[in-house]
TrEMBL record:
Keywords: Disulfide bond, Oxidoreductase, Redox-active center, Signal. SUPFAM superfamilies: Thioredoxin-like. Belongs to the thioredoxin family. DsbA subfamily. InterPro entries: Thioredoxin-like_fold (IPR012336), Thioredoxin-like_sf (IPR036249). The lineage of its organism: Bacteria, Bacillati, Actinomycetota, Actinomycetes, Kineosporiales. This is Thioredoxin-like fold domain-containing protein.
Length: 231
């Protein structure tokens, strides 16, 4: 399987601290044969949130996150529900990509395991709910990671109907290959997490992370989507 080499760095400035991918190798190519979870756009793809219009029918928001990223937790707290609402109302096609590069810098496999749990939750229609619950359980100390039992608690709180089937998929590493493929397919222009890109009218641009993390994050998202729809 193709591999990705990642180095974690903390960037401290006036802007928020973000998880940054400094170096990586490998080709952006999905490994053949890896199972693809429900609602994913395809091998190495992201998860389409419920209610999202078909491709090309509305502006598209692509979100890249890592479950061990503290700033991603802040983003989920400030703007996660707004993403769900934009998809549910049909205002935007929202696609969420679960990365795992922080495992290398933090010396564990918690990003990958949490992302595998997300894939198993997506198979039961609870991806967004699971993501919210995982971030609610993120350790205060970055690098402590998640135990499998904590991830299961998140799945249960998210309303995953068949937790036994969910846990079997996690224990068996059913979606380990898919999670690796998503990481390897990370676009060059995505240099850290969280990253949100808006695509409309044939052009793609990144939204301002600082604004997304603030109290005005939800309004900013809606304004950007509305402006893209009107253009």
């Amino acid at each position: 399987m193709l591999t990705t080499t990642a180095v974690l760095a903390a960037v401290v400035a006036v802007a928020p601290v973000v998880a940054v991918l400094l170096a990586r190798g490998g080709e952006e190519e999905a490994a053949s044969g890896a199972p693809v979870p429900a609602t994913a756009t395809g091998a190495a793809g992201g998860y389409v949130l419920p209610g999202s219009p078909a491709e090309g029918e509305a502006p598209r928001l692509d979100v890249w996150l890592d479950y061990q990223c503290p700033v991603c937790k802040r983003f989920e707290t400030s703007s996660g529900e707004a993403l769900v609402e934009l998809a549910g109302s049909g205002s935007a096609r929202v696609v969420v990509h679960t990365l795992s590069f922080l495992d290398t810098g933090l010396g564990n496999d918690s990003s990958s395991r949490a992302a595998q749990g997300a894939a198993a939750a997506a198979d039961q229609g609870r991806f967004a709910e699971y993501t919210r619950q995982v971030y609610a359980r993120q350790p205060e100390q970055e690098g402590d990671g998640y135990t499998d039992d904590v991830l299961q608690e998140a799945a249960e709180a998210a309303g995953v109907g068949d937790v036994t089937r969910w846990r079997e998929a996690l224990d068996a590493g059913t979606y380990a290959g898919f999670v690796e493929d998503v990481q390897e397919a990370m676009p060059d222009e995505v240099e850290g997490t969280p990253t949100v890109q808006l695509t409309a009218g044939g052009s793609t641009r990144a939204l301002d992370t600082t604004t997304l993390l603030g109290s005005d994050g939800p309004a900013y998202l809606r304004e950007q989507v509305d402006a893209a729809s009107a253009s």
